[in-house]
């Protein structure tokens, strides 16, 4: 019974509102995917995939972390230099992530309203 009320309310929305929401959702998902592909290698499944997919920032940081974690005699100067090279790229990626979340995602959440349409209780 209550699901019927929810369905009725959804169907009562004007098609223009639904189309606008869908286009905003698609744009937001595209922006999130673009950020993911900028920082990670989402299509990579195993170690052989480095031949098919270029490594991204996360692969370089993970490789560096693994080298440092396994180092018995300490961290080399080359590893420190590589980390210094990667830190500005990571900071820029995190800044773009925070901007995406604080502006685009937060704006969508504010404009979308509640995530669930609550039926009125009788």
Give a description of the structure.
By secondary structure, the chain is mainly alpha-helical. It has four helices and no strands. The protein is elongated, with a radius of gyration of 22 Å. The termini are close together. 1% of the residues are buried. The model has no long low-confidence stretch (mean pLDDT 78).
Based on Cα principal axes, name the global outline.
elongated
Tally of individual helices? 4
The major beta sheet can be summarized as: none
Flag low-confidence runs.
Answer: none
Q: Approximately how much beta-strand content do the residues carry? A: under 5%
List the helices and strands in order: HHHH
Q: Structural class, judged by helices and strands?
A: mainly alpha
* DSSP, total strands: 0
The value of Rg in angstroms is 22 Å
Head-to-tail CA distance between termini: 11 Å
Q: Could you tell me the mean pLDDT?
A: 78
The percentage helix is: over 70%
Layout of SSEs?
Elements: H1 2-12, H2 15-39, H3 57-70, H4 77-112
Care to give the gist of this entry?
By secondary structure, the protein is an all-alpha fold.
Give a quick set of tags describing it:
mainly alpha, 122 residues, 4 helices
